[in-house]
Amino acid sequence: MKFRFSIPVLFCAFLFCFGSLVAQETTVMVRALAKDAKFIGSSIGGAKIILRNAETREILDQGLTSGSTGNTKLILQTPKKRYDKLTDETTAGFEAKLNIKEPTFVDVEAHAPVNKKQAKVISSTQLWVIPGKDITGEGVVLEIPGFVVDILSPQTHERIKASNGINLKANIIMMCGCPVTEDGVWDANQYEVKAIITSEGSEIKEVSLNPTNKPSTFTANTNLEKGYYTITIYAFDPVTGNTGVDKTNIIIN
Questions:
Q1: What angle do CA 45, 49, 54 make, to 5 degrees?
Q2: Dihedrals φ, ψ of 9, to 5°?
Q3: Which of 17, 90, 188, 225 is deepest in the core (most CB within 10 A)?
Q4: Would the pLDDT of 18 be above 90?
Q5: How many whole angstroms from its chain centre is CA 81?
Q6: Where does the pLDDT of residue 6 fall: very low under 50, low under 70, confident under 90, or very high at 90 and above?
Q7: 74 φ, ψ (degrees, to nearest 5)
Q8: Angstrom distances, CA of residue 1 to CA of 9, 10, 40
Q9: Residues near 110 by Cβ (< 8 Å), separated by ≥ 6?
Q10: Are 176 and 147 contacting, i.e. CB atoms less than 8 angstroms apart?
Q11: Is this prediction's pTM over 0.85?
Q12: Phi/psi at 11 (nearest 5 deg)?
């Protein structure tokens, strides 16, 4: 008995036999690099990495970067040539595993630093990922601009007597957690740190904060009359354009 197969049937059988529609696990290394600084890793809680199918918005994988911030000399103080690496086996990153059946256009996002809500930014890019073609080594590196600014004093909703001076104090670090110090790798003298004090939407005054002996700590003193105030402290680097902001509210009795 003889069997006859049409061309479409034979083609479908060919696809099935050779597994062209079988998903393959494909690795994509993703890293978050703080602008003018180092990699965002375990020491500051990491960067949240999300990889999505750009067409369907399906999340293909997600997780946190982990590992060290990397080698300061290699990242910031060594001239770079083409293909020179900034990372080693301990440098922070997230190794995503994507199960894909065909070349897939992927959105890659880094939300960083994930634990510092007032400083967190989203950096993203897109790329094609080919089944079975791993992207490893340096991988996909997303730049994270800015500073992490934390107001240490005054405390939120603190009540202060008008007769008392107000101590303004802020902690300023790079997005990777690296410290800011006078004449250091990240020079505190290079940055502009100021407090903008407003009341009911009107600006009352602007006060400059100065670096102290304690790393990353800036301070100033001022006085205010009775009222409700919003204090906004910002950091700005005129060389790189890095910025950062934190806000608090106080009551002067």
A1: 165
A2: -65, -45
A3: 188
A4: no
A5: 25
A6: low
A7: -65, -45
A8: 19, 19, 69
A9: 30, 32, 40, 47, 48, 49, 65, 122, 123, 124, 142, 144
A10: no
A11: yes
A12: -65, -45
